[in-house]
Amino acid sequence: MTEKKAIIETGWNFDNSYARLPESFFSRFNPTPVRSPKLIILNDPLATSLGLNVQALQSNDGVADLAGNQIPEGALPLAQAYAGHQFGHFNLLGDGRALLLGEQITPLGERVDIQLKGAGKTPYSRRGDGRAALGPMLREYIISEAMYALGIATTRSLAVVSTGELVIRETNLPGAILTRVAASHLRVGTFQFVSNWGTEEDLRALADYTLQRHFPEVDADVNRYLFLLQEVIKRQAVLIAKWQLVGFIHGVMNTDNMAISGETIDYGPCAFMDAYDPATVFSSIDIHGRYAYGNQPPIAAWNLARFAETLLPLLHDNKEQAIELAQDAISDFSALYHRNWLKGMRAKLGIFNEELQDESLIEGLLSMMQKYGADYTNTFRALTFDKPEDTVLVGTTEFDQWHDLWQARLGRQQEPKDSSHQLMRSSNPALIPRNHRVEDALEAAVQQGDYSVMERLLAVLSNPFAHTPEQSEYATLPAQSTCAYRTFCGT
Ligand SMILES: Nc1ncnc2c1ncn2[C@@H]1O[C@H](COP(=O)(O)OP(=O)(O)OP(=O)(O)O)[C@@H](O)[C@H]1O
Fold first, then answer.
1. Which of 81, 159, 390, 450 could potentially form a cystine with 382 if both were Cys, beta carbons 3.0 to 4.6 Å apart?
2. Residue 3 pLDDT > 80
3. Is the pLDDT score of 244 beyond 60?
4. Interval between CA 442 and ligand 1 midpoint (Å)
5. Sign for the pseudo-dihedral over CA of 334, 336, 337, 338
6. pLDDT tens, 142-189?
């Protein structure tokens, strides 16, 4: 009897709804094969939840899929066209180094984009090489997965494959491809592209597609395009509030990096704030602080206004009335954002009910943190565990006074102290991806080929609210302040 070798199916289950949109929205294009692909990291739980077989993905065939060296059955690779305001300047862009393989239909019936980032040149590459370097792709993997564990809507990372080829940047760097998973890659910039270069029919097709994909609950008797605008605004209000609450700085909030789904997208120059300061900027290219921590909410509103402009022809036949509808919707953003932020801040301080003075209590703490350069994450953590001695604020009379006010505030609510502690524990992460920890992990990986540092970091980051001793170790600040820390994008 001859033994049959069992073939394990990878589990790709593609549908390609985006490819059914007007042809001008994208370019069908295949990935450019790479010399010697090697699997660096695979996200096993994510693969399983997508209906993919981990063992099959680890095999030569699986790695060839993730490297773009072969096209999985049912995939229809394409580069999406989009435009965007980059630092306020409008440009025609598009996937210059990413290719959408297709939409994976998961065992739960959900539809997610599977995209290879760094898969080679596309018609939108302009002068770029279509490639990505290993360090930045691992960085995207680490931070996006940390954001997911923090409960923040985000694109996810399925795998990183090294290519065996070098990419030429300031120096030669090892190349890599990231497999990104997203609810979709529809961006504010996608609408800007169609609004500028398409017909009204194209715009309606895009808006209808987006509604069907992300907001299928839309009622038949409402203005569906106004509903789309309002829902996108709501999702962004939730998202940006969550960023602010954990001290996340995106770094490059261009309109092409604002996802219609409400997920965080593009982990280029992002980083987490250490000492609390609204003016914090990490990105080396953000010279004027346009995307500083404290500017993120108004910048989100600005981006949403650009989104609203694209929808004007669909909102109402009468231009004036369309503008009025759009303006009303946009003006809701700051109140929506503020409500989400305040709710989150109350939770961070163990407060369940609402009092008018809560905001001044919160502002009081934040301004003390700013004055004394207190670490944002660790201060809330210290308060969570009644360990104010762990913050630099202790010893100042301002802090003692503030602490009394806070305790009195907690005393005025009906909840037992234990419940407040529970709420704080689940609202204040024990740790965030500290810049120096991320850099250490990347250095070991890229310079020495040692992935163990990154794997340990990913393990502690996967459960940020556990408050274990190991996490405390990872929460320590670097010996020197990281204020001078700079991130770079476009690699
Ligand atoms: N090496 C490259 N080759 C070709 N195009 C590139 C390259 N790097 C960036 N681009 C393109 O430049 C534009 C802006 O780059 P940005 O760094 O914001 O995007 P990205 O990180 O490649 O993609 P995404 O926003 O999908 O995460 C995008 O259109 C992107 O495709």
1. 390
2. no
3. yes
4. 21
5. positive
6. 999 999 999 999 999 999 999 999 999 999 999 999 999 999 999 999
Instruction: Tell me what ipTM this predicted complex has.
Output: 0.98
Q: With a 6 A CB cut-off, is 346 part of the ligand 1 pocket?
A: no
State the pLDDT at residue 379.
95
Which residue, 61, 32, 374, 78, is CA-closest to 175? 32
Q: Is 96 in the pocket of ligand 1 (CB under 6 A)?
A: yes
